[in-house]
Design brief:
alpha/beta, 8 helices
């Protein structure tokens, strides 16, 4: 068994995450992802909402063929599904699509139609949080595209931290990047992006709960607009 594949206890993983968070705070995203690849090997994956493929692209440079996990909630915009298909087709990654236990029709039958309007937290739990928890079972570490400048709730995101809820190492390699950094990387490397980003949707989730944002407004103000909700539950 290689070092990258070794089994670690929960305490060992937590200690590893906290130490790496300190050691890698000033590292580049590619350096952080190379550390993840070397440390966890096939027990490491990237999750992507298919808003853009920046982290997936970076991870493919650090670990060609890396697993990229995409949650198909059943409520995505067609553009989001198209972006996922394109990422799987043209990038050096292994696209893994997770789906909820119930189809939208089955959920409607059990909970009533448009659960997302009546209880968005439950809808997110059923269609995002639970499928991801099941999909991450075989991994020790996962990477996200969280950035500190996105919202106040993400301002303290560590580049490497401990996901206590899932008992895994959580890696946010572009946490220190700004939107300008992201756009510069996309332009330099020709990275795939969701077409909706150019159509007034700076933050893209499920279609029923994502709205266009007026110029100058907070990028995430179009998510669950009019509700006291800013996160789907995947990140806290």
């Amino acid at each position: 068994m290689t070092t990258a594949q070794k089994e670690r206890t929960t305490d060992e993983l937590k200690e590893l995450a906290e130490q790496a968070g300190r050691d890698l705070e000033d590292a580049t995203p590619l350096e952080i992802l190379k550390w993840a690849a070397d440390t966890f090997g096939p027990r490491f994956c990237v999750t992507s909402s298919m808003e853009d493929a920046v982290v997936a692209h970076l991870a493919s440079r650090a670990m060609p063929g890396v697993d990229v996990v995409f949650l198909d909630t059943g409520y995505h915009f067609p553009e989001t599904l198209g972006t996922a298909d394109a990422v799987g087709a043209v990038m050096d990654v292994n696209l893994i699509t997770l789906t909820p236990v119930q189809t939208v029709a089955e959920q409607d039958a059990e909970h009533g139609p448009k659960l997302h309007d009546r209880d968005p937290d439950l809808c997110c739990a059923l269609r995002k949080v639970k499928p991801l928890e099941q999909g991450l079972t075989s991994y020790q570490a996962w990477a996200t595209g969280l950035r500190r400048d996105e919202s106040p709730t993400r301002a303290n995101t560590p580049v490497v931290g401990w996901d206590a809820k899932r008992q895994k190492v959580k890696i946010s390699p572009i946490a220190r990047w700004t939107q300008d950094d992201v756009e510069a990387y996309i332009a330099e490397h020709g990275v795939l992006t969701n077409p909706l980003l150019m159509d007034g949707y700076p933050s893209i989730g499920c279609a029923p709960c994502t709205f266009r944002v007026a110029e100058g407004e907070d990028a995430r103000s179009g998510r669950w607009a009019g509700r006291n909700k800013t996160e789907c539950g995947l990140h806290g």
